[in-house]
Amino acid sequence: MIVFMVCVRSVLGQNMEVDKMVDKRCKDLVEEVFKNRMYEIREMYNSPDQNHPEFGRLNEFGLCLDFVEAGTFSDQREDFIRYQLSWGGPQEEFRLYKNGDVEFWYLDWFDGACVSVNGGDADIIKDICYGVICKHGWYR
Fold first, then answer.
1. Claim: this prediction has a pTM higher than 0.90
2. Domain tally, the chain
3. How would you class 106 by CB atoms within 10 Å of its CB: exposed for 0-12, middle for 13-18, buried for 19 or more?
4. By three-state DSSP, how is residue 81 classified?
5. Using CA atoms, how far apart are residues 114 and 112, in angstroms rounded to an integer?
6. Residue 105 counted as domain residue
7. Domain for residue 17, yes or no?
8. Tens digits of per-residue pLDDT, 56-85?
């Protein structure tokens, strides 16, 4: 469960006023958070030199890019590449699976939800992940 208080960073990435505490689960927030994160990534990706005046450089946006083996988490369906944007509570990450599926996950303590990423947005995430992996020889 996520609890918002007055003048906290919202799921829209901006400060917002909240008159009262609001309880929301990840499933209630994941789509809005995804839309905002994807907007920021799309803006950086399409900016000259992938450097956006408001959001910064795309290559400095995420925290890490790593490989998560099957079985790392109890309900994990298979290996995936994780493009992690934030961690803790809440945590945001993209997961890229071997079959090409891309998901955006929004996680908070003992709660989590995801949305499928499709079309041009999935292509951008794949390009970011494969670009780093191939550049450094992690993927053959």
1. no
2. 1
3. buried
4. strand
5. 7
6. yes
7. no
8. 999 889 999 998 988 898 888 788 999 999
